[in-house]
Amino acid sequence: MQGFVNKCTNLPPRYADELQRWRMCLGKHNLTYTEPSERCFSVSGIYRHEDFKYPTVPSVEFDIALVRLDGDVIPSDEISYACLPSKEEVLPGGKKCYATGWGDETGDSLDPKVAEALNQVALPVVPYETCKRMDYWWFQVKTSMICCGFTLPDDLKSVCQGDSGGPLVCQDTLSAPWEVHGITSFGPVGCIMNKKPSVFTRSSAYIPWIENVI
């Protein structure tokens, strides 16, 4: 997938096909100034999943897109590749993964504040059988999604508004490569709520689609 970036489809529909409006920066940490580590690319293609119908259909299933960069990515100390998981691989409950993003740090949906520096949160996988319960996400969560978060109110952490499209990465072992198992998709209003873990598109459910696009 050299030259491709995996994203959710939360691209503004009216601008998604206007490639000249988009730029992708890698090796970025702080949004307030230009960093020596960053490498920015124009975008030569955006490929949204053809079955993504939200908000016409009240479901965010198929929330995935690929972005083709106009150039090859050269690894550095700040830029490296993450692998894709095996087709249909499902993570066990309790597996710790990491989500990153510049999303809201306040939890105030009416007045969100984008982070200046990249944030990271460690989240355990919530089993699908738990996440689909009526007191959790019920019918809104699909088998093509991953739920991650703590179930005890005192431990609640989550991604937030503005983090959508960011990666959920995991390692099998400390020496194993990082794998992009999820893409931030949705969560509760206000970001943190008991029994409402963060929900991610499960990358392993879309391996055939990804391979077909690239």
From TrEMBL:
* InterPro entries the UniProt entry points to: Peptidase_S1_Elastase_sf, Peptidase_S1_PA, Peptidase_S1_PA_chymotrypsin, Peptidase_S1A, Trypsin_dom, TRYPSIN_SER
User: What GO biological process terms does the UniProt entry carry, in alphabetical order?
Assistant: proteolysis
Q: Which Pfam families match?
A: Trypsin (PF00089)
Molecular function (GO) terms listed?
serine-type endopeptidase activity
- Name the source's superkingdom: Eukaryota
Cellular component annotations (GO), alphabetically ordered:
extracellular space
Family, similarity comment: Belongs to the peptidase S1 family. CLIP subfamily.
Q: Write down what this protein is called.
A: (spotted green pufferfish) hypothetical protein
